[in-house]
UniProtKB/TrEMBL annotation:
Residues 428-562 form the Ribophorin II third domain. This is Dolichyl-diphosphooligosaccharide--protein glycosyltransferase subunit 2. Residues 1-20 form the signal peptide. Component of the oligosaccharyltransferase (OST) complex. Pathway: Protein modification; protein glycosylation. Residues 313-420 form the Ribophorin II second domain.
């Protein structure tokens, strides 16, 4: 039970610390390690060009140098796909996507054929995805070829055709036949329209661009929010085939938004906090375990890293747990979402509040010192007003240059949960057995002299134990004091006293406190029924634990021999103790076999006489053979028959020898097993020799 109580304390403290944390960290080495595990080629290549592009794009964004070399197989697959006349616009799109990274050479004739086929696909497109793959393919081939005539002759007409799928709430449909709209389709539409603008041979009608910017604002009006400030898009499940999760949907919108902002003049009228909220959503996911989700996360963060709307800056802490004992410094980092260095700025600690309290800030606003070598903002020592406990620190980021305020977004203020730990002083610990009815604590203080049976000073930090005895008319008092490193009273989350009887029945009591003093008084007269009138030895354990207490303890402080009265007839019985489910797998009791006593053997002389009688038939056989004489005239003279004849007689001798061994040492099962092998051997060689003798006899008779 001690183990279970310790485990409960550890689990409680762990959940308390982890449950309050809502800190976002930029991309780290853990993502790079996960990328190499998730994107592993099979026999030197990936399953499709789509997977090839996603893997290579992820490696490129994360800057992974030691990555699988799939260039040769990728170029071969790209060349085959681009050269096939049966390749769909989707096939061409992903082939060109992959080629944008591996940089395989495409000849002019192939390029011209691709441009012609994609233009034809644009003219015949009837759905949003048709436009997406064909327009996207033209944008990619334009960047990968030297030809300057890759453009749309009627860009505004194509723009209006795609715009026809939009809805009044900023969402888009996949086709005119599908009435359902989604944010995922809106992201695809924005990326497609960005491609149309870049392929236009002349400047687009600005009214179309303005209308589309208004649609983007409407789309962001429907964005959803988590409590930690993360923003995301999600589609209601209408058609399982078309439904995408929040990660895929939000990733689609981010790609479309950043692509459109990159090709249009002016700015997209979106609050910077919404861009920061999207960044928090992708970073809050952690490290996805699915390759597709991982790509969506990394690719979206790469889009946010270099977008023309607002570049989010992320405030993070290497550690949110600070120790007063170790005199830890408060360290803060500010980076982009991919971990790049931030522009010149200042980090301020503008407030610190005790968790769950609405009181005024415990600290005054102060700047953190920037260390240029490590890129960390440092507060070397915590203010004296900060003691052990859980706090919410409020940080503010101030950019040095006003021009950067138009490029970067930092958010107003960032709240971070901080846990300050330390060694708690445990002092004046005593365990006392009291006689008589002492009434209140004040009465005990006044009349304590002469009423104390035992009083022990406890060293809870050491290993000393005490041995006490008491009866039902006495009381047990345990007291101690807890003080923080700053000298203030400390109240832990749990202070428990446990008494365990030798029959494994346990009783747990909560230790109360008044300021620094913790005390519990057990009146055994009022506890006899709770103790089921069980006299005997009770082990005493004290548990004191807290999330911020570096020296939480679970100590056996001794035992007490209790002499309780005999139980009355209707006294409650102790509950049955639970059976350990793992005891069924433990060692079993040894089984002792009792064999029947052997029967009395006959005299030795009688046994030898019967042995002689069993040998008489063998002697008779030998005498008969000697009298008749041995006839070897029919023994084969040729080599092969003679060999089988010899083996046959050897087999008969082996059977006779086996009988002797059975008599001397072998058991029945061993004998039958060996006799089975010898029997098969005798049948085979015997059949051969008898067949030979029969054939020889037939020749003699015919002659």
């Amino acid at each position: 039970m001690a183990r279970s109580l310790a485990g409960f304390l550890a689990l409680f403290l762990f959940v308390l610390i982890c449950g309050a944390a809502s800190l976002f960290q930029p991309i780290s080495d853990s993502h790079r390690s996960a990328a190499l595990e998730l994107f592993t080629p099979t026999h030197g290549s990936f399953k499709s060009l789509e997977e090839t592009y996603e893997a290579l794009r992820t490696f490129e964004v994360l800057g992974i140098g030691k990555k699988p070399d799939v260039t040769a197989t990728a170029c071969r697959s790209i060349s085959e796909t681009l050269g096939l006349l049966t390749s769909t616009p989707k096939d061409l799109f992903y082939a060109l996507k992959a080629n944008s990274i591996v940089k395989c050479k495409i000849n002019e004739k192939t390029s011209e054929g691709i441009i012609t086929r994609l233009n034809t696909a644009v003219n015949g497109a009837s759905s949003l995805l048709d436009f997406y793959y064909s327009i996207g393919g033209l944008v990619l081939i334009k960047d990968q070829t030297s030809k300057a005539d890759v453009y749309l002759t009627d860009a505004e007409g194509v723009f209006r055709s795609v715009k026809a799928f939009s809805q009044s709430d900023g969402r888009w449909r996949y086709s005119s036949n599908n009435p359902e709209s989604s944010a995922f389709a809106a992201g695809i539409a924005l990326e497609t329209l960005a491609g149309i603008v870049s392929l236009a041979s002349s400047e687009m009608d600005q009214s179309l661009i303005i209308t589309l910017k208004n649609d983007i604002s409407k789309l962001f009006d429907s964005i959803e929010k988590y409590d930690d400030g993360a923003l995301y898009f999600d589609d209601k499940l209408v058609d399982g085939h078309e439904h995408q999760g929040p990660l895929s949907t939000t990733s689609s919108v981010v790609r479309g938004l950043t692509a459109f902002a990159a090709v249009t003049a002016g700015s997209v009228n979106l609050p910077g906090d919404k861009i920061l909220g999207l960044a928090k959503f992708f970073l809050g996911i952690g490290v996805p375990g699915d390759a597709k989700d991982f790509f969506n996360q990394i690719d979206s963060l790469a889009c946010l890293e270099s977008n023309r709307v607002s570049i989010p800056l992320i405030l993070s802490l290497p550690s949110t747990e600070l120790s007063l004992t170790k005199k830890d410094s408060l360290k803060v980092r500010v980076n982009t979402v991919l971990g790049s260095n931030a522009p010149p700025l200042t980090v301020k600690l503008v407030g610190a509040f005790s968790s769950g309290s609405k009181d005024a800030s415990l600290v005054e606003s102060q700047e953190l010192k920037f260390d240029a070598e490590t890129g960390v903002h440092i507060l070397s020592s915590l203010p004296k007003s900060i003691d052990v406990g859980s706090y919410t620190f409020v940080f503010e980021i101030v950019l040095h240059e006003s021009e950067h305020e138009k490029v970067y977004v930092t958010g107003n203020q960032t709240k971070v949960p901080i846990f300050v730990t330390g060694l708690i002083k445990i002092e004046n610990a005593e365990i006392t057995v009291l006689d008589g009815d002492l009434g209140s604590i004040e009465t005990q203080k006044n009349f304590i002299h002469g009423l104390i049976s035992y009083i022990y000073r406890l060293d809870l930090a050491g290993q000393n134990v005490v041995s006490l005895s008491a009866n039902h008319l006495q009381k047990l008092r345990i007291s101690f004091q807890l003080t923080t490193p700053r000298g203030r009273a400390f109240k832990p989350h749990q202070a428990l006293l446990k008494l365990r009887h030798e029959s494994k029945i346990e009783h747990i009591f909560v230790v109360g406190n008044s300021g620094k003093q913790f005390e519990i008084l057990l009146n055994f007269l009022g506890l006899v029924e709770k103790f089921f009138y069980l006299s005997g030895r009770y082990d005493i354990e004290l548990a004191v634990g807290d999330a911020v207490m570096e020296n939480s303890l679970l100590r056996a402080i001794g035992h007490i021999e209790l002499d309780l009265p005999e139980p009355p007839e209707k006294a409650p019985r102790p509950p049955p103790q639970p059976v350990d489910p793992y005891s069924r797998y433990g060692p079993k009791a040894e089984i002792t076999h009792i064999f029947r006593a052997p029967e009395k053997h006959p005299p030795k002389e009688l046994s030898l006489a019967f042995l002689g009688l069993t040998i008489l038939p063998l002697l008779g056989f030998l005498v008969g053979v000697l009298r008749l004489g041995v006839n070897l005239k029919n023994f084969p003279s040729k080599a092969i028959p003679a060999t089988f004849a010899i083996l046959f007689h050897v087999g008969i001798g082996a059977v006779l020898l086996l009988y002797v061994l059975f008599w001397l040492k072998l058991d029945l099962f061993q004998t039958l097993k060996l006799l089975g092998f010898l029997g098969v051997f005798l049948v085979l060689v015997g059949h051969r020799i008898l067949s030979h003798l029969a054939a020889a006899s037939a020749k003699v008779k015919s002659a």
